[in-house]
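Continuing the series of single-chain predictions for the mutant panel. This is the parent chain; the variants come on the following pages.
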Amino acid sequence: MNDDDRLESYIFPLPSELIAQEPPKERGTSRMLVASRKDTSFIRHAHVYDLPDLLPKGALLVANNSKVLPARLLGRRKTGGAVEFLLLTPLPLLLQSQKKEGDGFCAHAQGLMRANSRVKVGDTFTFGDAIHIRVTQAGSFGLRDVVISWQGDLLHLFEAVGHIPLPPYIKRPDTADDALRYQTVYADPERTGSVAAPTAGLHFTRELKETLLARGFQWTYVTLYVGQGTFSPVRCDDIRDHTMHTEHIEIPEESAALIKQAKQESRPIIAIGTTTVRTLEGVAKAKGSIVPFSGSTDLFLHPGSDFAVVDGMLTNFHLPGSSLLMLVSAFAGREHILKLYEQAIGEKYRFFSYGDCMLLLPWRSVPNAVRRKTAGDRSSKGANCARAQEHSTGFPKFACIFFAELPWHIGKGWGKSHFLLSPRKRIRTKKDGVPEDFYPEAAL
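Parent structure:
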């Protein structure tokens, strides 16, 4: 087993103050580390609004247009005990299988559940006045097969009583502002059902998209309903043993045609986020090329994986040891990515869902024009990007521990869950039987 296959090789120390707890005050102003996928000598610092000056000519940008559902429900047992449920089945798929039941409807679904006492098959829980959930099968790490019964419009019911499922490293309850800021500006209401945002897309404003189109770049959409496949942690010491949960993906006919045309014309495909990467590469692997598609993928991209479609990528900074960090390492090389993360930490970039981002350009050798654009001093919007500074703060050689504490908010006396990650082992200590992957990582 080489280093690229070891879980410990994807662990890095991260100061807790760099974990973004709030979105930037203004959407579209996040910092952006700019690097080449192949030319490891090129590292520059910019902002998201600099994208039109940095993307390769003729690029086609592909984004995930799924919308986050307020999928986190807080409810009660018949006896009054607190319970929490996170719906994993994409809402459109759930509604396709709904059946009439009395004055309402019912459907089978999957979700993650926890309560202040053991959850057994047959237990029934109530959320609000019109959603009832009965457990039909228990799985590992809090996974449950359930039957959901409801009256009325299920989407409206979730919007009325559900909570935005913020990831655990955001140590606060969700607010009304999160309902806006934890969605992309291009999220499609017809594709509501993700339980985590495709967070690389959170950086885009409508104005930035319009500028990109005016400058001659193309833009199209695919859909991946973000679920357990994206955020479930890697638990295997040998990452090749990790199994991804399936997630539903869609590529419409128009998008497939644009992508095929760009490849034929040798124009670069720039994926907005890792969920877009998995959608494109998942379909290419399953079908041999990009074609219109509606189905599922369990593709796990890690060093050694091939990329048939994506040439460049905009992505946030990801959790240590996560499958998302392994994906970007497969794309640009693990050692290269970890050096970029070291630069980002030294420059105090903000990490994870509400944090800053990284643009991985497709060039083997960065054009001089781009080098010039990113070589100046940045003092305000519209100025050239700041020159990268050299840092000698290398990662420590001794075993480093990344610590994340999950904020659980339900019920008196509920405990907390801790994660300890080190290059030698991954240890979890817990209270109250909380599943370690109950909430999404979602740093896409």
